[in-house]
Amino acid sequence: MSYFTQNAHPNEATGWRSPVVLLMIMAGAMQLSFAAWWNLMNNFAVQELDFTGREIGIQQSIREIPGFLSFLAVYLLLMMREQTLAYVSLLLLGVGVAVTGYFPTAFGFYVTTLIMSIGFHYYETMAQSLSLQWLPKATAAASMGKILSVGAFAQLIAYGVIFVAWKMFELSFTVVFAIAGGLTLAVLVFLIFAYPHFREGVPQHKKLILRKRYWLYYALTFMAGARRQIFTVFAGFLMVERFGYDVHEVAGLFLLNGAFNMVLAPKIGRLIVRFGERKALVLEYIGLILVFVCYAFVTNATLAASLYVIDHAFFAIAIAIKTYFQKIADPADIAPTAGVAFTINHIAAVFIPVAFGFIWLVSPAAVFLAGAAMAVVSLVLATLIPSNPEEGREVDFWYRKPSAQPAE
């Protein structure tokens, strides 16, 4: 059995060769490279390349360009299957990470970041599309939680090895980047020969899809992308620049994040199934408002690390945005809308790292207070999600409903 020799229907495959296990292993393969790259990125930039907030902002904006162009995935699907594009994306991710350390210049880091990012973002686009097509609506959130948990386990492996081995064996950036990228490529070879080609569910539109009734999903996705940049770019940079975290200390912090995600993600998925997307997202955004305000004024390294772990723990709740869309979407819209959604998610991501990089030079606190304001907007939007979303019931304008009249 291999991807090239056998086709299978996703509903008929069971056991370790089922689509959900394939999605889990792909998530793990992606994280082996990306987690290591993310762990080393800030230290590599500061210690090897002497980056400041300005350069890290430029590099992060370059990283987000492929995300902004994710809508082009729908045109690539005219030439290849979604599962094929997911595999090609993992290939680019692995290669981009593996060669990073061999180009220790600002320009080299920008180029390898771009290659890695093309793989990462197109993989994420395809993984989201395939998940929403292959997983049953009633249990999709729980299955996505398990997939996140496997990705978190792979993060634990990457962070744990770096945490233990960095000082012990005096590893270099070049060696760790090469090993991390090579592991992703090795897992990819296994996937190609161990799994068949799974057919997609409903045939997908091979054109861009923008529908008025999906506007709340687009808005939530846009705000999530804008707000996430504050965390991914500047919270980690804060730990290195202000509090002087070394590579193994950053790895230890990420190790805690991975452990929390591995344990919490499946539980969060089940809670979303039980309580619904609206309540889950309202809880997330209230928590993020408090975290970002604390970031703005933190002066203690231990407290900053605690905020970083708490902030990261909220990430799994973003599953609710995906399952909200799954419930309201025309099944044929899923693949093209996944690309459009990633583009919307990255509109702000292209300019926020650069613009806020300059703001950072003047006031780091202002960067995090802006993140709190974004979380407030997301909170308002989340309250518009119906308690039971479905096609034809995409938005609940609760504030327009007339108040109950007292009985006479």
Mind explaining what this structure looks like?
Keywords: Membrane, Transmembrane, Transmembrane helix. GO terms for molecular function: transmembrane transporter activity. This protein has about 400 residues and is mostly helical. The protein has one domain (about 5-395): Growth Hormone, Chain: A. The chain is built from 14 helices and two strands. It has a two-stranded parallel sheet. The longest helix has 30 residues, at about 20-50. About 55% of the residues are buried. The model is unreliable at about 405-408 (pLDDT under 50).
Rg over CA atoms: 21 Å
Name of the level-1 CATH class: Mainly Alpha
Q: Please bin the fraction of helical residues.
A: over 70%
Largest sheet: 2 strands, parallel
How many individual β-strands?
A: 2
Which spans have pLDDT < 50 for at least 5 consecutive residues?
Answer: 404-408
Strand portion:
under 5%
Strand order of the largest sheet: 1-2
Total discrete domains: 1
Element-level helix/strand string: EHHHHHHHEHHHHHHH
Q: Structural class of the secondary elements?
A: mainly alpha
